[in-house]
């Protein structure tokens, strides 16, 4: 691969105001939600069809929502008063089409997912639904019948997927927060490729009711933002018990002193950058910052990678076939060929395959539990390299597997994770570190990610 061709040609993310800044501007009278939201819709319209949004609220509907909030006593004190947000188009919102980037699959939602209801109840304003790899199957962002999105670091670079539009909506400054999903890295790879922050909570802390599942036993609602503070603000509002979600569980709050956190780092020689020396050097610089700030200890990487190999080379793809197999049989021409190939492969697994993989995963979970008994979090690259759109289209399966090298195992092993920007490689492409913690260590990974984010001016 000629990495010399992968040169970032644009400035990277252009973040809009944070939630805190928006709320202060509203309180001071410097602006108002209707002005902010009208400007967002105008900016999106001026950019044209760039693959970020699948459907948008109309200006009259947004203004009506702003007027409703303004007329509601006490609404201005709501934690997300007037805060615009985007929603991945695999999550139901009453009155909106849910497409999963497949027009033949689209249906009009009659209920709103609890995660979206929580945001609306907190005063937020929905701008629209964002693009994704079809059926949330992919990590690259090219698997869509809509315009293919591109990274904010250059028009030739992929956006990442499947939550491509959610990451770009934040990176382009359209919204400070976007709701996404994560099954194999979909809520971490796109933020990494667009210089923003992606948070995959522990499975079940945010209800998945109203989400069209990709792999029901692994799916997580994820959050994407420009700052960890914004992630924490929204997470506090949407992490809630929901008896309708059989995987739902209670959040375990923990006060964290970053000075006492022990960070696990695999030996640099065990990390894979797929021949991309610039990305390897960028991550090495980031590791130096981690070592400077935290108590760092070596940890093995192989058990995590072994678990990751089970995802697409094992029977979990059968979950996608269970969800979409009938639709695929009835609409063979309505699904992108690469998606049809992946989903169709799920029909070939037996119950024996399922149990064999579950036994192996249980063994690996035991090993990983022992590793986390020695450290609080583990830090890895979020991605080892990236690609151009043409490179992915030329080899869609292999490139996608490379993108998930460090993310595929997260949901299988029941981990939580934050992908946080870590400067740029020498050629201008984004470097991202992923902070991983065991289940229910969400407050720890967020605090550690925030601490690191405050030190990235050294990179």
TrEMBL record:
Domain Amidase: 65-446
Alphabetized InterPro entries for the sequence: Amidase (IPR000120), Amidase_dom (IPR023631), AS_sf (IPR036928)
Superkingdom, taxonomy of origin: Bacteria
One family name in Pfam for this protein: Amidase
The protein's name: Amidase domain-containing protein
